[in-house]
Amino acid sequence: MDKLFQAAQAALDALLARGAEKASVRAASGETVELNALGGEFTLMRTLLDQSLSLTAIKGGRRGTARLNRLDGDAIRQGAEDCLAVAESGDADPAWDLAPAPETGDFVSGTPSADPDRLFDRSKELLDAIGQKFPHVIVEEMITEHKTETEVYLNSVGSRFTNRAGRYGVDLMFSGHEGDTATSFFGSSVSVPDLEKPFLELGTLANDLEAAERSLVSETTQGSCMGDILVHPDLLAEFLETAGELFCGDSALIDGTSLWKDKLGQPVADPALTVYVKPLDDRICGGERYTAEGFASRDYTWLEGGVLKSFMLSLYGANRTGLPRALNTDSALVMAPGTKTKEELIAGIADGLLVGRFSGGEPSPNGDFSGVAKNSFRIKDGKLGCGVNETMISGNLADMLKNVGGISAELVCDGSYALPWVVFRNVVISGS
């Protein structure tokens, strides 16, 4: 930590000495203990070290940034010169700024020190369990790790933050196989603060492995219909993050393309939806503790009973638009649960899909989207059927958020979110 403090202070001094009117720096170091397995066999164990220094300078309303992977004096001096050169070459914009008053904080979360032996035991346990419980699944690649990140933030206003966070994680890539039949690749991952539970009990790992086996029997979708989709929590996170960018983010509100630009405090979604952005939640691993502008991060409510309670604006976006700044810049989404189980949600769908993944282009500014449903299954008359292929889904994100058909009581926590399974009504499902 002392070395990071020294580098951060030297960088801040260098920026100010070269004419920066306001400046901020972040010095960070990381250590990763990593295990790799290919084809179900361990192939590698290694320790990775990294360090970085990020510099930001504001001069004459112009903003420059630079990023280094060295912390020595020569690198810092050159980095400060490069940062100011970028600022001086840009266009002036008075919206660039730092937090107006100094804030401080020292944070520790998770498990900062690795236990390599325990990590190996949990990793082997996972491979063995997959072999026993999912005999038709081949694990193409497994990466398990412990990652420690230590960082120091200083700015010219007087803000000072330190953060030391440690987490364990697993990342699986796998597919189903039986005879000459094979599925497409599935991926599943989770991060946790400790190793108290077996990996297979976390996130949606077991669900996703079962889905790979179920996909060995599939059918091609014929024709087109308007149906319901039950969305995997991973895909729900993707849909919500995209909606946040399109309707509540800096660019959409500055450019005036957001459908919700005049909707603060008004209903924009189904009354069943209450969504928070909570990097400080205990279920979130390595959540943001401070913003780049020097504010201490705080949790906030995004949607409450379908009502828009906050935009997702940075300080820059707030200054450009005159709208309120969000209390953090993280994407740590947490949704209030519903009352039905996942199985009860399936039982309530007459015709539709369980959608695990979506492959498509960027939605249009108004939220229109279209793409291929991957890792997905037919639901007919309340029963989950076989996998589907050559199947498209299309709709509009803003409309979809107003047509919620059910929310599961179970919340899936993968370390980056705590989200349920959600049914969306009236989505176009089409095939060949």
Structure commentary:
The chain has 432 residues and is an alpha+beta fold. The chain has two domains: 2-214, PmbA/TldD superfamily (PmbA/TldD fold, 2-Layer Sandwich); 217-432, no CATH class. It has helices at residues 2-17, 73-89, 116-133, 205-214, 233-248, 250-255, 315-321, 342-347, 397-401; strands spanning 22-38, 41-59, 62-68, 104-110, 137-155, 160-178, 181-182, 186-192, 218-220, 224-231, 275-277, 300-304, 307-308, 333-335, 351-355, 357-360, 368-374, 377-380, 383-389, 392-396, 404-407, 412-413, 418-419, 422-430. Strands 9, 10, 15, 16, 17, 18, 19, 20, 21 and 24 form a ten-stranded mixed sheet that branches. Strands 1, 2, 3, 4, 5, 6, 7 and 8 form an eight-stranded mixed sheet that branches. Strands 13-12-11-14 form a four-stranded antiparallel sheet, with helices on one face. The termini are far apart. 44% of the residues are buried. The model has no long low-confidence stretch (mean pLDDT 95).
pLDDT < 50 runs, ≥5 residues: none
Report the span from N to C terminus: 59 Å
Shape: globular
Per DSSP, what share of the residues sits in E-state strands of 2 or more residues?
A: 35-45%
